[in-house]
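@channel sequence for tomorrow's demo:
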Amino acid sequence: MLFFNNKLTKVAGILSLVLASTASDFSYANTEQVVETAPQLSVQLWSVKDAMQADFEGTLTKLAAMGFDGVEFAGFFGKYANDPAALKAFLTKLGLKASGAHVPFEKLSAEQLEATVAFYKAIDCHYLIIPMDQRAFTVEGAKAVAADLAAVQEKLTPYGMQVGYHNHKPEMLGEMGKTPWDVIGKNTNSKVILQQDVGWTEVAGKDPVDFVKAYPGRTITTHYKASAPEPGNTENPIIGKDTTDWKALITANKTIGGTQWLVVEQESYPAGMTPMQSVEASLKGLQAIIAEMK
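structure tokens (generated this afternoon):
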């Protein structure tokens, strides 16, 4: 599903810069060139966690048949927990890649780093994303998280791997340029992935495109979530049936974000639909949007 051609693209017209956002003292980052990417489509396996735990191999087989290029792991591996080589072989058989994994800081501690790196390198998984850290819910706490991310990245760089952070609502609250997310972005180098979760960004009242533009080349993987499970949120949870401007985001991801993977994530499910049916519906919706852009 390589739906865009790789090419080096001048984005001075897009970023040429400094484009003001809604915050009076905020401006997008400057850059002269970014590499236009050809993002592939993945699914965060937390979306179908019950199915994964009930039938690990069968669920992966069904996800591959739906048309996903990859999967993002969420800490469960069925019978392969101690056999990453066999897991890699099974993924290859299905035509799936490991687009990344959600990994807590403890798995990247000095005591566990070697084992963690060995497992994920064996399945050819290069992006290890911290799924949440409540310290990052405040500006001061985000500084500590940024320092930890920077330290982990220094250890991962020799292995050709990258660490990243995934947001929820609190990291995106506040004035653009001064949110906890901005603190993380500004206090880590470009190797640290800013895995934006679109659904949570939107319930925080922000436009996800703004954060892609603010940090060029940092959204290597992005969670495409139509509706975050926020109390009172009535947004349709299926991509393409919601109100997100996906075309604008896809354009920003591929021309500015350096995005390699668009990761469908489902945490809300329409009445009468199973999680598997929901992720398939969101995949088809995303594919339809992409087709319209060609």
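heads up for whoever presents: Residues 1-24 have pLDDT under 50 and may be disordered.
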